[in-house]
Amino acid sequence: MRAGWIRLWQWTACGGIGLSLYAGWLTFDDFRDRAAGERDISAACDGLVSGAAVMDLQGGMLRAKAADSPRSRLDADELPGSCTVYKVPGPGRTTSLFTLTVRVSDTSTPLHRIGDDSTLEPFRDSHDSHDTRKSDVTAIADRRPEARPIGDGTLGRYGDWYTTVRAECGPGSRATAPKLLNVTARADYDDISAADRERLAHIARSAAEELTDRIGCRSHLPALPDQQLPSVPSELRPARSTDGSCRWFARHVQAQGQGRLPDRALATPDPDASPVESCLLAVSPDQVGRIADGLPEDEHDSASSALTHSPWWLRTASFFGPEAHTVGYDGLGTDDKTITAGTAGHASGAWWASSVCDGKPALHTLSAGYTYDNVLGARTLSAVFRAYVDDITKRRGCTHVTYPAAKDFRAP
Hints:
The protein has helices at residues 2-44, 51-55, 194-215, 247-256, 285-293, 300-306, 372-376, 378-396, and strands at residues 64-66, 81-90, 93-104, 112-114, 148-149, 156-159, 162-168, 180-187, 237-238, 264-266, 276-282, 313-320, 327-329, 337-338, 345-347, 350-357, 360-368, 399-402. It has 8 helices and 18 strands. The termini are far apart. With 412 residues, the protein is α+β, with helices and mostly antiparallel strands. Helix content is 29%, strand content 24%. A hairpin with a 2-residue loop joins strand 6 and strand 7 (162-168). The strands form 3 sheets. Strands 9, 10, 11, 12, 15, 16, 17 and 18 form an 8-stranded antiparallel sheet that branches.
């Protein structure tokens, strides 16, 4: 009997040792796979990011891989460029995880785009396949909410799923360095946590710091704020009580009346040092109905579409310093057209004015959603844009303001 117990204990001990060895082998295998993923990510992004930091996104993972396509692998010597990373949840399965994008100002493609191009649309279509039918299209900027400045904005801007760090290449930079570069770290999955938002900000800043050093761009990158970056609001508020970057519009409506103007706004903080500032304005379904009552019968289709796939909106945006030299619009079948700083004009649903702020060029713009400029009319549109430009140039202490001619506000 005793011999039987001894044999049972021996078999149990051997089994435990075997299981321990197997668990150790699995742990080693997981460690090896994660290390391989980290190396692959770093190589694909040309050493600009920490593979470990990327693999810590979305709660952390054991297996990830970079895209195999040369177009999805970044080369710091050939900018612009990007790298893409996938999570590997199981054999033969991948899901989108992360993209790092580097864009530079010294190309034919401007860093900033304005106008009524569909890619700049802030709202999802009410028939969008990802949503149930929406009864209020402009309630939430669920496609393109306004980015918020990081700190005072000189380091860059961020959204809930991305951070863009900017770097101005100043005196002492290598001749081949661009005047301005943007490094964007983007999460390619839904429900980004506050912790991941912080990780993206650190990844973007670290990549920008490494890149500027490598390409000989002499630039000072401010530190990230000590406090956590808050989530980015996407719900529009009543325009009459808006503040921040849309405060000027609240004052304009109070002074001039509502008329056919937007009754909703999505503002951002407006620190005076920020090189980019924007304000989104939109028309609610109730306001669409009121406007439609005053439209000719042949224009009622425009009001109907404003409730579904072609909402009425305006966006004002200003760009200061190097940013003012890399603003453009859709060239209608050709490459994007870059606006020359110091000019004023109109094209593709966009209007722009110029000024000089703190000795540097500035560009002030207004974009209108498709058909909404016709609904407002030249007189109203011109008055709104002038109110905006007057406000921001006064607030920023700008001079040499150049406005578009009155004819530019008439529909082509």
